[in-house]
């Protein structure tokens, strides 16, 4: 193996030294640029802080800050007033709904009560009409029975005759006592005799109130005897 010669070793050593020198130079330049950048950023931030501090400490900045604070305060107060108004409106709406519900319930109860009263009145009227129809039917049935029952007609005729005779006797007694005058109690003067109007004619008493026949009661002017 051959050993390197001295000139080649010197060349190689020189190249290495040059490369290392260039490397150190590049690193130094990088450090300088980094330091420069850091210093530049520092000064820029310092200038910015100074300008902002000067701006914020100025009267204009104070006024702007106060105006902004007042605007925010007014917005907050407006928001609170709006929220309070919404709450009041919400409460009023709830109260109105409750009142409306109560009124509807009262109206429903009133309508139900009115309907019950109308039904009761209708039932009462219906019962009254039915009772009236029943009474009319019973009356008609009684009248029909009374008209068509010969025994009842005979009994009624006898009772009527007795009533007329008793009335006649009573009137005669009153006439004798001078308490009957012509024109009193349905009486009239016929031939010098005080008689019932339209009943006693020429000494005979006619009764037209009997249901199916006319009965004649004749009286003597002296004795008062009855003739049928």
TrEMBL record:
Its main location: cytoplasm. One of its GO terms (biological process) is apoptotic process. GO terms for cellular component: keratin filament. InterPro entries: CFAP53/TCHP. Signal peptide: none annotated. It is found in: Cytoplasm, Cytoskeleton. The keyword Nucleotidyltransferase does not apply. Keywords: Coiled coil, Cytoplasm, Cytoskeleton. Residues 72-138 form a coiled coil. This is Trichoplein keratin filament binding. It comes from Equus asinus (Donkey). The lineage of its organism: Eukaryota, Metazoa, Chordata, Craniata, Vertebrata.
């Amino acid at each position: 193996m051959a050993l390197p010669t001295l000139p080649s070793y010197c060349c190689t050593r020189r190249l290495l030294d040059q490369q290392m020198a260039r490397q150190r130079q590049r690193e130094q330049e990088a450090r300088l640029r980094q330091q420069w950048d850091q210093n530049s950023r520092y000064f820029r931030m310092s200038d910015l802080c100074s300008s902002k501090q000067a701006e914020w400490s100025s009267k204009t900045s104070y006024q702007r800050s106060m105006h902004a604070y007042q605007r925010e305060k007014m917005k907050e107060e407006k928001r609170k007033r709006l929220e309070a108004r919404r709450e009041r409106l919400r409460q009023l709406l709830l109260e109105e709904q409750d009142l409306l519900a109560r009124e509807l319930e009262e109206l429903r109860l009133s309508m139900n009560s009115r309907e019950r009263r109308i039904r009761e009145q209708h039932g009462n009227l219906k019962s009254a009409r039915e009772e009236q129809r029943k009474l009319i039917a019973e009356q008609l049935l009684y009248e029909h029975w009374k008209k068509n029952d010969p025994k009842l007609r005979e009994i009624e005729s006898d009772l009527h005759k007795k009533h007329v005779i008793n009335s006649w006797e009573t009137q005669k007694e009153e006439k004798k006592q001078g308490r009957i005058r012509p024109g009193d109690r349905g009486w009239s003067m016929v031939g010098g005799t005080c008689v019932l109007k339209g009943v006693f004619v020429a000494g005979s008493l006619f009764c037209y109130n009997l249901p199916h026949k006319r009965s004649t009661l004749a009286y003597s002017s002296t004795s008062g005897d009855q003739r049928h």
